[in-house]
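User: For my dataset I need records formatted as: sequence, then structure tokens, nothing else. Please produce one.
Assistant:
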Amino acid sequence: MNSAESSADGLGLLVVSFHFPPTAEPRAIQVGNLLGAVDWPLLVARGDDPRRRPDPSLTARLKHPQSRVLAIPYRPHPVGVRLEFHGSNYKLPLAGYSPDMFHYWRRPAVKAIGQALKDLPWRPRALITFAQPWTTHLVGLDLARGLGLPWLAHFSDLWADWPFMPGDPLTRAYNRRLEAAVINQASRVLFTSPETLDLVMAKYPPALAAKAGLLTHSFVEGDYPAQGYQPGPRRVIRYLGNFYGRRHPSLLVEPLRILRQSRPELLANLSIEIVGSYQPPSGGGNPFAGLPPGLLTFRPAVPHQDCLALMAQAEALLVIEFPVERSVWLPSKIVEYIGAGRPILGMVPQGASRRVIEDVGGLTADPADPQAVAAMLARYLERPAPSSPWGDQAVRGSFRAESLAAQLDRELRQALAVSTSD
């Protein structure tokens, strides 16, 4: 469906994504990348949360002149928020997980979208919702039932299967019920990796599992600087992003100590830069104290456009994931790395991230195995830096925003065909 086709018959797409540019959230960036490559007229309903910092380098880039962004205020009830905060501290059931802290947005969003649709010069032919937060899918559930539109529900993460959700039976049962309601109602259910799709849909009957498809993350080629990597006096490997929990830069310490003892020449002109924020270990002390000065450095987070430039200008890019046995999660940062066209070194477990990094030509090692990480770093550092753009070009091309927009078009056509035949 191209823009001329859409304008001629007055058709378009209703989109709900709480996170959308200029909000500085990975979900906002990814939805913005995808929709910026879509030709149809769009009504994009996003959350307006004053607590979320905007990024001046992020803007909504919608192609069609009749597209519109509808900012819907998020106004949580002060008493309710306080009760949820204290309830979560005491691990009370459902506190902060019904399904998330954005549930106050559900009713105002449905009402505001209904009013906005009356003023549009075109009518939406389908609905797509992007979650997290999961409240976005509940808004979609209400709209799909009320408007009778074919509905594509896009999952960026695990919902009922999320391993860090409180383990009490009520919270888990409630979120399983919400997820099931969404999957039952949706025309298509889309995931960012086959590993996530398989895990989520394994608990549903085949008729529902047949609704599932893939729509992964994307990058925009033109967002990276034309002047990319240039060799310098030091070899710079960068990690860009934030840390939390067991995903921590201290996972680098032991591998670097191993290399310092076994292959010190490889570290002579190496600089590993951590760009982003992390929480120091709660036990105190400096886990990096034994490393040579300049080997591991820390820089504060930067606006997204600067982040992309730092990716493109690095010799190589580092991924550090949770030290678990297997992970179905595919961070959008890896796809942004692929867009930068620089070698990727992944401290990642078995699962989606490892598969994608290896497909594009990168190196991987288990983050829980310091010897394996040291061997991966040595294997890379033994060779000269490759030129840009690095990586399997067919794999890179599959993650371009234009490729994903074409895939979304196919998913929409499939949903519309099923809707017409019903």
